[in-house]
Amino acid sequence: MAYDQQNGSGSRPMHQGNWTCAQCGAAITQLPFAPREDRLGDLMCRDCFRQRRGNSDRPQRHMVQGEWQCASCGTTISELPFNPDPSRMDQLKCKACHQAQRTQY
Ligand SMILES: [Zn+2]
Ligand SMILES: [Zn+2]
């Protein structure tokens, strides 16, 4: 766990790539960190990032795009408010089923 690539000069190496802002859809070509493949739905451009930090009292839910299947009714789920756990795919439910389940309690 040693950071032997740290050169302490203060200039952080930027990661080059081709990503898209999850908020406004702008292209992101540089990031101060290497984004994780499963967090690409959370990526934000600098403007959106700054804006979000500006009004942090209004929590915003970002949706994760993908293609899953509802374990209950079999419908296709294209958006989730969280990153689904691959080991719990059989418990994944669409919005309607989720709501139906919640109202039961
Ligand atoms: Zn943006
Ligand atoms: Zn369903």
Can you describe what's shown?
This protein is α+β, with helices and mostly antiparallel strands and 105 residues long. It is 18% helix and 21% strand. It has helices at 46-54, 95-104, and strands at 15-20, 27-31, 64-69, 76-80. Strands 1-2 form a two-stranded antiparallel sheet. Strand 3 (64-69) and strand 4 form a beta hairpin. The longest helix has 10 residues, at 95-104. The chain starts with 14 loop residues before the first strand and ends with a helix. The mean pLDDT is 83. The protein binds zinc ion (2 copies). Residues 70, 72-73, 75, 93-94, 96-97 line the site of one zinc ion (ZN). Residues 21, 23-24, 26, 44-45, 47-48 line the site of one zinc ion.
Global mean pLDDT: 83
* Strands side by side in the biggest sheet: 1-2
- Computed over alpha carbons, the radius of gyration is 18 Å
* Proportion of residues in helical segments: 10-25%
Strand content: 15-25%
Ligands: zinc ion
Counting DSSP H or I runs of 4 or more residues, the number of helices is 2
Q: What is the global morphology?
A: elongated
Order of helices and strands: EEHEEH
Give a concise summary.
This protein has 105 residues and is an alpha+beta fold.
Task: Spell out the key features of this protein.
2 helices; binds zinc ion; 105 residues
List the helices and strands and how they pair.
Elements lengths: L14 E6 L6 E5 L14 H9 L9 E6 L6 E5 L14 H10 L1
Antiparallel strand pairs: 1-2, 3-4
The protein binds zinc ion (2 copies).
The site of one zinc ion (ZN) has 8 residues, from helix 2.
